[in-house]
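Example A, followed by Example B.
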Amino acid sequence: HTHTSLYLGLKELTLPRRCAAAQMPDMIPEDWTHVGRVDPSEELELTFALKQQNIQLLEETLRRVSDPDSPQYGKHLSLEEVASLVRPSELTQKVVRSWLQSHGVSDCLAVRTQDFLQCATTAEVAEKLLPGSRFHRYARDGQSIVRSSAPYSVHDEVHRHLDFVGGLHRLPPKGKDVRKKQTKSGAWVHLGVTPTVLRARYNLTAADVGSAQNNSQAVAQFLEQYFHPTDLAEFMYIFGRSFEHLSQVDRVVGTQGGGKAGLEASLDLEYIMSTGAHIPTWVFTNPGRHESQEPFLQWMVLLSNMSALPWVHTISYGDDEDSLSAAYMTRINTEFMKAGVRGISLLFASGDSGAGCRYLSKGQNTFRPSFPASSPYVTTVGGTSFKNPFKVTYEVTDYISGGGFSNIFSMPSYQASAVQGYLKSVAAKLPPASYFNASGRAYPDLAALSDNYWVVNNRIPIPWVSGTSASTPVFGGILSLINDRRFSKGLPALGFFNPRLYKLKQQGLFDVTEGCHLGCLDEKVQGNGFCATPSWDPVTGWGTPNYPDLLAALLVD
């Protein structure tokens, strides 16, 4: 039999940091320690992504239900309708299941859309099923995972029915440090960002809280991050007294781990619930069931298995585009489209490394885009700071705000004129063309404050917390409030927001026109990436929300 490798990203073996490529033990990123080969009887859980049908029709449907000028705008699909559209063919399902059963793999769960199979097996069986794979245990910061140290292959007749197999290669990215080093003198009299400051800057009144029956919002956590209910209650007691709010999470999906609360988890939850105030909130948390699971993939699988979901999800998670295979990212994009056609808004943080940098030999450095921030099917949120940190003033770029151009995905039509306008207007000041792909999906789409937040973590109020993991739940909360008002008028959820956002042409948004973000530390760009300009730019997108104006623009259908 001929074999085809499902993982074709071998060029990625040279990555200096983390990577999801087929790795030999000594090529695992150095922050992971190799513990040893796993026992042949070690239980594993593998996720098989079966090839779907009608992807082009799915994309066309997403365009029609998300474009405000389309007669189908807002006519979202149910999970059952999505399933009947993309469900793998009978042949695909039969071939994959027969292949698994012939190796004794029968303990499998299928999602409602039939396009993911999650199977329990042993390392010994998995290595026979996927020739070339060799399972090892790795550890980092007290976390232990099981992954394959080598590329796997599958028979050609099976390969054409699979997008990828999850649970082999992708390593969780390292959690970000969301505390900024504080160097300014007199910093302790600094304003700091709290719900009151955000509500003042974005023009939310005490009356701007949720009231619709059928509204909800969610945050998703993947990196062994947990929240403590007591932190949320304390945060609302200290910072939420001026507006009606909820002090408890509506639902936790997955298993909350024990131990200390994570700063990132506390930040996400406290700020989506104080901006999208009085709106029931879910937390999707790392199920933590299995060392071989990939938590981000696990969340995507859950979305395909739940017919009732919150309307807005905010996710502060990303990895370098070049550390993931194109096949994997393309399939994840299909999952994002499946959420969008159901009317779900997915907001991802743009990242905290500016334009990023991939340092290559002979000075051929390039910027380094992040995924899922670079997906054309999500709304990506960048970050800003106050111009004057001592009072509520206008905003400028936060130098960490992730942004740039995808090297994998082409520029979607909804943003083409805005991005071309930017490239023309700043042509003389752009970084050298070799640093970025000017025809790629450009991000972020918009922004919010990302600098110097107050967070309650393990019962202690902590200042100086920064990152686009702060701005993302803030914008998510604002979209939830707008959905709330739309529902009360009998209008559908905003769903995939980008096609409508780019047609607003800045309406309801404060333009951010000052400052640049980080880039490569080299002679050519000297630490700078892109710079903010009037209108859209790849640092702050269209800008930050002016709630009453944005609401007014989005209450007409």
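Example B, a separate protein, is given below in the same form.
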Amino acid sequence: MPPPADIVKVAIEWPGAYPKLMEIDQKKPLSAIIKEVCDGWSLANHEYFALQHADSSNFYITEKNRNEIKNGTILRLTTSPAQNAQQLHERIQSSSMDAKLEALKDLASLSRDVTFAQEFINLDGISLLTQMVESGTERYQKLQKIMKPCFGDMLSFTLTAFVELMDHGIVSWDTFSVAFIKKIASFVNKSGMDISILQRSLAILESMVLNSHDLYQKVAQEITIGQLIPHLQGTDQEIQTYTIAVINALFLKAPDERRQEMANILAQKQLRSIILTHVIRAQRAINNEMAHQLYVLQVLTFNLLEDRMMTKMDPQDQAQRDIIFELRRIAFDAESEPNNSSGSMEKRKSMYTRDYKKLGFINHVNPAMDFTQTPPGMLALDNMLYFAKHHQDSYIRIVLENSSREDKHECPFGRSSIELTKMLCEILKVGELPSETCNDFHPMFFTHDRSFEEFFCICIQLLNKTWKEMRATSEDFNKVMQVVKEQVMRALTTKPSSLDQFKCKLQNLSYTEILKIRQSERMNQEDFQSRPILELKEKIQPEILELIKQQRLNRLVEGTCFRKLNCRRRQDKFWYCRLSPNHKVLHYGDLEESPQGEVPHDSLQDKLPVADIKAVVTGKDCPHMKEKGALKQNKEVLELAFSILYDSNCQLNFIAPDKHEWQMLDTWTRPRTSGPSCKNRAKSGN
């Protein structure tokens, strides 16, 4: 007869004693269970004790998370979080440097637990740590020369504990003083600072900027781009990552009127070329976190184009009209201008109308009207002028070449430029906020200060070439644009390292090649729809489905390492999840670092019987998408979320890195998909 569902069998450790095997009744109050354990070892004052997981997490057992205790779990009887917090609060104020250092080390470790964190914060622990950072560093400055390693470790553990405590979201970031901000900023601005101190200081500054408008302004006054640049020129990729994260945070939170100014400063400091040299082209692989930060910087940079993209042209604005006159002048400079007399006014208008038609504008009389639709607004005109000035020979060739063709066969430069600019903005998602999970940066956009304009120049020449290859007429305009979009998208997926390489990729994707690719894909699709194939498919379907089932189960048994994702800042923390070989239990647990290969299931601390899974929900129905925070505001993240629900009010929360991975992890709800891969886990009570 199976044991009652409310009874779990566990082992409980106590230092200096043999572990006890006992049955825990989940219906009993946790305090009663602790008292029973204490009585077994003749320990008085049971209220000063608590139970915690005996694994590397050391998380306390509470009434909220006690349902996570499974059969076979190893627990430890230990000092209660309130007692522990009180003791550490006193120990970190010790006059003994060694005792203080040991206490701060313990605090940095225990602060990861939200139960302990709440108790320590209740003792005004955050204020104590900030005071130690503000004044304590000066107190020990005289000892730095003779105790530099000790001092560095002490400050590192202090900042680590601070970061861990703040990560729980219990204390508002708005509560910190200018003195504390200045002190943290000084660690970043000072050369030769210990790596661990620098890393945590950068992380604190990033969180300050992202979580408080007031702190953004104060941090922006203390930190300049020039002071951050040297950290990018080093060799430590983690420091480089945190540095770019701070730059991104300052960029993201800057008022609209300040962003262009900040972009100009970044250009003056040659940030792009420094990143290209010391990060992208460095002799080492770019990890996922760095790829994400580069992607965010790429998105924020392109989002500077949004203002021009959404600005309509004012047909009465002479400065804007002069840009169109300049396009005409560059293209038809050889033609003589009529005398500026009243008798030649009609000739002038007639000539302008003729030239605007050759330039491919829809409105030949007043081409300014072509730029009144947004997007792409004035951005299209900016691109056309850039092409005309910086690639003048190609510009003149395209315009004159098309003006000499029959009307129906000419590729209208004006109309093409407007539609192409709109298409490129859609491809690069100009105006959209960066995704929390995307790593899709393109190295080639870091190779030129005017990368979007150069991107346009390459693509407008591609469009003209494809138009000729298709022998298109004006009626084929939309078809040509579809082919060009396919060419650009296929070239981008290869992640060219430079704009020249991107151009070479496009050369190999001629219209003829696109037709071959389409034909091949269509033939493959048609082959699978033919009658003999359908009959064979129906015959072997049961065998194939069983094979797919086994493959997916094998994928789940193999398991995956996932990156934890925090709504306030991304972290280099990992956890692993895998299915047991008998397919009955999900094993999961935290890892100190990303593993090389599989993690044995017996080394994972937490277990979830598959039989206990009540439901799987996706998208907006996920508990972590209903919480307050930045994640739920991102539509893309919402589409990648899913949760496994078990017991009462308990869940494992996931966010897939992309749609392809989401379809794989959809195996929990639909038999046609594969195993899980995600970047976030949260359990109720954590």
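On Example B: The mean pLDDT is 87.
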